[in-house]
Every structure is written in C-alpha cells, then in structure tokens.
Amino acid sequence: MLDIRNINKTFGIGTVNEKKALVDLSLHVNESDFITIIGANGAGKSTLFNAIAGTFLTDSGEIILDGKDITLLPEHKRAKDIGRLFQDPMLGTAPDMSVEENLVLAAGHGGWLSSISSDDRKKFRDTLSLLDMGLEDRMSHPVGLLSGGQRQALTLIMATINKPKLLMLDEHTAALDPGAAEKVLALTKKIVEEEKITCLMITHNMQSAIDLGNRLLMMENGNIIYDISGEQKQKLKIEDLVSMFKKASGKDLDNDRMLLSTDDTQ
Amino acid sequence: MSLDSILGLFGTSAELGLITSLTVLALFLSYSMLNVCDLSTDGCFTFGATVGAVVAISGHPYLSIVAAMAAGMISGLVTALLQTKLGVNSLLAGIVVNTGLYSINIAVMSGSSILNMNKTETVFTKMKGLLGGTFLEGYYKIIVALIAVVAVIVFLTLFLRTRLGLAIRATGNNPMMVRSSSINPTFTTIVGLCIANSFTALSGCLLAQSQKSVNIDIGSGILTVALASLLIGNAFIGVGKKIPFRAIGAVIGALIFRIVYMIALRLDMPAYMLKFVSAVIVVIAISAPYLKKQFPTFKRRIKHMTSKGDRRDA
Question: How many CB pairs under 8 A join A and B?
Fold first, then answer.
C-alpha cells in the first residue's frame, strides 16, 4: 500500500542548527496494516508523517502510495488519499463553521457549485449518531463550541468519511482528558478495524502501542530501529520495549512522558 | 426644515448607503469570510468607477456594469496572485495594487483626473426613463442601488452555501483544514478576492454614474468607511447569525453610517470630517471588544494598588 524508499530530510542544511530528521528511511506498509509508532521526542516520528503527507518535500528518496508516485505531489492533492489527525484537536476543523458545513467540506463529493442535499444530511446524521456524543442533534452548531474530545471525534469522522488509503494519527488523543481520550481511541479502533483502513499511529503511550494494531515501529535518530509484528508483537511487554530501546540507542529511555504513561489504563 | 427636505436628505443617505454597501458586502466576503484585509479596495473602487464611466460614455450603459465588475475581478486577481504565488504579504499586496491602480485609473480616463457624465446615458438614466410618469419616478436612484444590493446578497447567500463557498469560508478560518479536505487554499483565496473586488468595482461604478462624474479621488478612504459600516452591522446583527442575516446586517451598517453622518452634517460638522469620523468608528469598533476583555484586569490592578495604599496607611 505505502512504499517509502530511502527518504532523507535534513533541516537547516549548512547552519549550526542542521538537523538530520530522517536518515535513509525505508518502510513498506501492507494493505490494512495498523501500525503503532513510538520513539523519544525528536526521533523523527512527526517528521515522517509530514514527509508522507507532503507538508514539505523530502531531500531524496521516493514515496509510493498505492502504486502512485506521490514524492513531489503537493499536500492538498495527497490529502485525497491520506487522512490525518493531529494532537491539537483545533487543527482539523473550522471553528466558525457548523458541524454540517465541516462535514460537507470533508465529504467533498460533487462539483464546486454543488450544495448539500437532504441525502447528505441524513448520511451525516447517521454517521454522527455512531459517536454517541449527541452531535447529530447539533449539526448547525459552530464546531468552536464543541469540546476537544468532540472536535477530535468529528475530525476522525471527517478524515474517514471517504475511506482514505492511509490514515495517519499523530498522538491524536494526547491533548484530551482521560475519559475523552479513551472514547476517541475506542472509536479509532472501531473505524480502522471495520473499514480495514491502513493506519499509522504515533503514540507516547506504550501500552496502547502494544495493545493496538498488528505491527509496532520504534524510531530513533530519524530511522526505524525496530519493526515488530505478528506473534512477536502480541507477546511484547513494556519492559521489553524499554530494554530494546536501551540496547539500540545505548541510553536509557529517559522520556518521562513515555514512562509515566505506561501505567495509564487507556 | 420642511418634511420634504428631510425626506430628501434621507433619500440621499439611503442611496449613498446602498451604493457603498456593495463595498461593505465585498469586505464581508474578503474581511469576514476570507480573513484578508484587502487594502486595494480604494483603488479598485476607483477602477470600477473609471472603467464604468469610460464604457458608459462610449454609449454602452449596461455593458459599463459588466466591464466595471470584470475590471474589479482583474484587480482582485492581481492582489491574490501577489499574496499566494509571489510571497508578498497580504497587506502589502493590497497597498502595492492600490498604488499601481492610481496610474492605471488616470490612464483609463486618458490622462485626465476627472470625467464628466452629465449627458451620458447610464443605468440610472435608463431607470429614470423606465419609471417616467409613475409614482416611483423620484426614487430611480434608490431602486437601481437596491436592485444591485439585493442581487449581491442573493448571490452571496447561495454562493457561500456551495462547496466552493464553504471552502472560501474555511480558508479564512483554518487553512490547514482546507488543505486536508484536498482543496488548495491558494485557489479559494484567488476566487474569493476576485468576487469581492468585482463587488467593490460595481460599487464604484454605480457611485460615479449616480453622481454623473468620476474623479481620481472618488474611492479614497472608502475602505475605512466600508469597514466602519461592516463593524456597525456586526454590532447590530451579531456575528454568529446565518449568512443572509449577516449580509443584510452589513447593508444596515452602511445605512446607519450614512444617516449618522447626515445628522452630523446637519449639526454643522464640516463635510471634510467624514473620513476622520469613519476612522474613529473603525478604531472604536475594533478596540471595544478588546478593551472590554481587558477591563477586569484593569479593575483588578486598580483594586490592588488602592488596597496596597490602604495597608501602608494602617
């Protein structure tokens, strides 16, 4: 489904702040893989997502999505096939526009001058009622009035309303309160599994990384240092991840957020 | 003062208010929806006036409207291209286009800075002829302006409901979300500014034709006047309402502005104070919500300072 071949990205080339963010990274993602990605801050997780989404162009290498070379495609064109959620729930929706208007833009079928039909409206209501958040009765409310959890759930619906070839979740529950985070995560799992969406998910919660999906990647210094799947992943424990990290990088996993979130129950 | 002359004054205010409200509706699209403060508005207004006048003088009253709006679109296109394709800051793009249009406008008037349309057939004279003999005869100017305003409001209401219209609104709200809906925000900015500027130019064209002359200064300060009207309309109608109500609010804002201005003139305010008054209104309308938000902090400071004084005294 997704083929990343030897991509490199260096920020601030030739300056004192030069940072090799992605180093000769290659990754093959199979159709309907659900991959969790962990790694310390600055390991290159979000940079990898930005490279795939086209926020910037890579310095070298190529990115193939579903047989199509997207290496040089602009961001908004890739967005047709790639759904994306960020940590900040404000980024995915337009706050002054209503729930319905946000959904119309995300659904995006019909020509430029088409407007919403009663069929669309019914479809949106049905989809929103699955969230069980009462959003289906607040279709005309501005999204800015919704809570962070509601906004993130809506963004998830918007990103998957047309089944994307690839869904990328960048710590999309990290900014939510524990209750909302749990709900959004459960919803994510449900949608991804039911629709068989190929999905990449960055998380700082090692337990979620182990529990969710069929494959786990650990990143460090702009590359993938571990790629664990199948039975091996099912047997994985947090302690294993900590010791693997130490072995690979030669240092302790000193990221407080990663360690602290291990005993979270989400 | 007789009732007739009072009505006459209100008529003039209504006519001017309706004509400038087209520029207010343009700002409603560019400033409120697209979140771009289009500083080329003054120049574009004059551009519409000069192009419309030249075409009308050449004997095509209806074509003059189309030509003026097309001219406005081109001006909007240039402003949009500067800010989206050439990396010019959006405020600077407007200023640059505004400056450039000054020369263009004089060129359109063949080197002169004033054109007279006393004997020219315009949409206004056409309407006057059409209404000749009926009781509406005296209101022909207001009727022309009203038709334009209603047409623009209907257009905006329908247009902002379409997918393209929604995308334009989202561009001013959260460009990132627009991109992730696989729409190019560059494209929506260009379309939005083209449409907005065509309204501005229409506004200028109608003002020139209604006063039967155009001079190079016809548009100077119109941005501030229109912005003041827009903000008055927002205060009057409220921002959270549906599009048609907000658009009508913009028109009401323009009318209120003109009526207040007329009353001020009656109270012997000199006419040249118009632009100063509009500048003050813009400052008040923009700063009032900010100051209101700051007020509790200010109160807290005063309270803290005075209570500290009390303690020292004790």
Answer: 78
